[in-house]
Amino acid sequence: MTVRSYILIQTEVGKAAVVARAIREIPGVEDSEPVTGPYDVIARATTDTVEELGRVVVTKVQMVEGIARTLTCPIVADM
Question: Is the pTM of this model over 0.85?
Answer without folding.
Answer: yes
